[in-house]
């Protein structure tokens, strides 16, 4: 069976997407800008077959720290209006009912075991979704302070992005994505300061003792919603993330392989249903919700993967 031909699109929202297939598995990135978010997006897919049947490789997958990874969505940018980390969500949204395979319940339990912060309504008959707080779900995450004054021009912003993402590094846009690294001290300092002001019981010792040695510690720490609410990200915060895993295969066929021994042939269920990876605002809870309203909030960015028409 020939591998599926894929088309990749990206943009500030699902309604404002442009093709970026030509830069998949390259050192180039797609620049996006809206009133809510500005930054860059890069996509890498192992053994990627584009809409013309051309197979492209990427040096990204040769990196020692990315062995076993089969796909990656990297984003570097900043939120242009302040927002607390509990309201910044990342995950998948769909525009119609999903055709779920037998045994999907076990797969979902595994997903929730891996990410206890996952929220979803995948059984929705109209708009299924699965979203998690970005700061708690991302396997790789970094932070850096950048100028946030109103007179900051586009060139200086682009310079900050290119410097932080180290585009010269083979096969990857993100320089070093780990909130555990010392270069993220500025974010941790502000987190600690906010906790100190609120005298949170989360801290058992001096503020300076709070450190993350790895992504697991960071993810565990931010599982708590109240903890996430203490972090505010805005124009002065350059965030770099790499959402990369190895459970999704694109060659020789499209398959989902979970460590628990479960394998799903997605081509049997993916009826040309676009898969959208989005970063969005958490839906605000209101007393009255209009019929047909999206179960998610404002969009920051979107990457869509779809099977190209033959």
Automatic annotation (TrEMBL):
Entry-linked Pfam families: Duc1
Chain ranges passing through the membrane: none
Taxon lineage: Eukaryota, Fungi, Dikarya, Basidiomycota, Agaricomycotina
InterPro entries for this protein: Duc1
Superkingdom, taxonomy of origin: Eukaryota
Region: Disordered, residue numbers: 142-176
Protein's name according to its UniProt entry: Domain of unknown function at the cortex 1 domain-containing protein
Domain Domain of unknown function at the cortex, residue spans: 5-306
Low complexity biased stretches: 155-167
Organism of provenance: Amanita muscaria (strain Koide BX008)
Coiled coil location: none
């Amino acid at each position: 069976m020939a591998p599926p031909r894929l088309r990749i699109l990206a943009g500030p929202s699902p309604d404002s997407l442009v093709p970026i297939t030509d830069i998949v598995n390259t050192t180039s990135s797609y620049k996006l800008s809206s009133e809510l978010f500005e930054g860059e997006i890069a996509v890498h897919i192992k053994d990627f077959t584009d809409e013309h049947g051309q197979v492209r490789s990427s040096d990204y997958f040769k990196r020692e720290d990315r062995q076993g990874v089969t796909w990656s969505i990297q984003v570097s940018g900043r939120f242009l209006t302040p927002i607390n980390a509990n309201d910044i969500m990342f995950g998948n949204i769909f525009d119609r009912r999903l055709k779920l395979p037998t045994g999907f319940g076990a797969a979902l339990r595994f997903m929730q075991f891996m990410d206890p912060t996952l929220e979803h309504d995948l059984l929705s008959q109209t708009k299924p979704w699965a979203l998690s707080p970005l700061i708690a779900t991302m396997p790789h995450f970094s932070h850096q302070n950048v100028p946030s004054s109103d007179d900051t021009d586009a060139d200086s912003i682009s310079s900050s992005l290119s410097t932080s993402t180290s585009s010269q590094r083979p096969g990857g846009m993100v320089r070093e994505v780990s909130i555990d690294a010392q270069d993220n001290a500025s974010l941790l300092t502000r987190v600690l300061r906010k906790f100190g002001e609120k005298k949170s019981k989360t801290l058992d010792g001096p503020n300076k003792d709070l450190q993350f040695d790895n992504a697991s510690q960071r993810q565990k720490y931010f599982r708590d919603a109240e903890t996430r609410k203490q972090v505010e990200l805005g124009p002065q915060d350059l965030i770099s993330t790499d959402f990369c895993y190895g459970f999704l295969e694109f060659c020789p066929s499209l398959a989902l392989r979970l460590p628990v021994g479960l394998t799903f042939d997605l081509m049997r269920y993916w009826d040309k249903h676009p898969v959208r990876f989005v970063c969005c605002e958490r839906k605000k809870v209101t007393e009255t919700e209009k019929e047909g309203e999206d179960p998610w909030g404002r969009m920051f960015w979107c990457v869509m993967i779809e099977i190209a028409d033959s």
